[in-house]
Specification:
The chain is of the alpha/beta class. The protein has a single domain, classed as Nucleoside phosphorylase domain (Rossmann fold, 3-Layer(aba) Sandwich). Helix content is 34%, strand content 25%. It is built from 7 helices and 11 strands. Helix 3 links the parallel strand 9 and strand 10. The longest helix is centred in the C-terminal third of the chain and has 26 residues. The protein is globular, with a radius of gyration of 17 Å. The relative contact order is 0.21.
Length: 247
């Protein structure tokens, strides 16, 4: 099925397994024959191809190239979670940013207007993408002054490839933690592998070293589930508005 088909075709990109999981049921996703990394499904009349990007810019760019070559979609949607900077954002709030900023280069990318308001909220603020886990209070305050409302590690890379290839794209990220809460730090970040899967040995060692933080880990897990569910719901709504390219 090509991008010019009368049947819309959407590519969904979710960084971690926990971000892909809530998409499986609504989109009826199944592993593609001969490629365990690719999922295929549908939503009504819309065909869907989904992949995990893994964590970080390089991996996200490579997977985006791969899914564009394979699926030739009409629209790419990034689905997942983000760390909130704006204190007005609550856990589970879905953001539809006006602009996505590559923290390494300063390049800015603007999501396609077509889907940005489908969550019922106007597009607003900036999403900052970087391979770096930013926890320094001064740097975070500076980003907030520049209009950044949330942080992630993949979206700008996806946007750059889509822009180069002329493919419309959107992003639905839900807030899974707020930087001011201090729950996610370098130690917590290291508990996940490059693909976002938990490193169970590291988790066990962390719990043994920091038994007092078990409650915070449990809270993080609950907040992550709330956020991934909200982001998936926004993606479902967004897919209903995708049209074949050229219409």
């Amino acid at each position: 099925m090509t991008a010019n088909s009368e049947q819309p075709h959407v590519a969904l990109l979710a960084p971690m397994p926990s971000e892909l999981r809530p998409l499986i049921r609504p989109f009826h996703l199944r592993r593609a024959t001969g490629d365990k990394d690719v999922y295929e499904g549908s939503l009504g009349a819309t065909r869907v191809t989904a992949m995990r990007t893994g964590m970080g810019m390089r991996s996200a760019a490579g997977v985006t190239e791969r899914i564009l070559d394979r699926a030739r979609p009409d629209h790419v949607i990034v689905v997942g979670v983000a760390g909130g900077i704006d204190e007005r954002l609550a856990i589970g709030d879905v953001i539809t940013p006006e602009v996505v900023i590559d923290g390494a280069t300063g390049n800015e990318y603007r999501p396609t207007d077509q889907l940005r308001t489908t969550t019922g909220q106007p597009a607003s603020g900036a999403l900052h993408t970087s391979d770096e886990l930013i926890v320094d209070a001064e740097r975070l305050a500076d980003l907030a002054r520049r209009g950044v409302i949330a942080l992630d590690m993949e979206t700008a890379a996806v946007a750059a490839v889509c822009q180069q290839r002329g493919c419309p794209w959107s992003v639905f990220r839900a807030i899974s933690d707020r930087v001011s809460d201090g729950i996610v730090d370098t130690d917590i970040f290291k508990l996940a592998g490059p693909d976002g899967s938990p490193r169970m040995g590291a988790v066990a060692a962390f719990v043994l070293r920091h038994p007092g933080r078990i409650g915070r880990l449990a809270r993080l897990g609950r907040d992550l589930q709330k956020a991934t569910t909200a982001a998936a719901a926004a993606a479902v709504d967004g897919c209903a508005h995708v049209k074949p390219r050229g219409e």
